[in-house]
Amino acid sequence: MTYPKKIFLVGMPGSGKSTFGKLLADQLGRQFFDLDEQIEKMSGMSIPDIFEDAGEDQFRMFETYALSMITQLNEPALIATGGGAPCFNGNMDFMNQSGCTIFLDTPLKTIIERVTKDRETRPLVKKMAKSDVTADMTSLYERRLKFYQQAAFTSDSNMKEIISYLESL
């Protein structure tokens, strides 16, 4: 089966891009890249440290650069982006031009539960007061949705549905 050379997963923090992405990459027989992990390797810093030491703007520049580098690799790959990656520096347009984008549209309630459990490793959520996480994540979702909806395909992480879509291309 021939799939698009590059497949990008987009969606909110906590939507399952990294976890589901690894499973999907295995199913498709391709290399998996977690964009945040690549940023950490390239910068030599953790994502929370980049946010704290250099700020979000610098992080977004690292993110765009790492996305470009991974996309230029000549091998088929599945790339799980960070939640904000599609929303900055024209990255969503770049991904749509470079391959197939899939929006993992996970229910907001599930996302809030996941990020609340994992607050310390999520720079944007770590700054939020625990009591504000629901309202702040809802607001973040509303701001980012217009970017996510530019993806070629939307799924709630249904493996069969996504593979069927990719096979139709």
From TrEMBL:
The keyword Iron does not apply. Its EC number is 2.7.1.71. Belongs to the shikimate kinase family. Substrate binds at residues 36, 60, 83, 144. Its cofactor is Mg(2+). This is Shikimate kinase. It is found in: Cytoplasm. Keywords: Amino-acid biosynthesis, Aromatic amino acid biosynthesis, ATP-binding, Cytoplasm, Kinase, Magnesium, Metal-binding, Nucleotide-binding, Transferase. One of its GO terms (molecular function) is kinase activity.
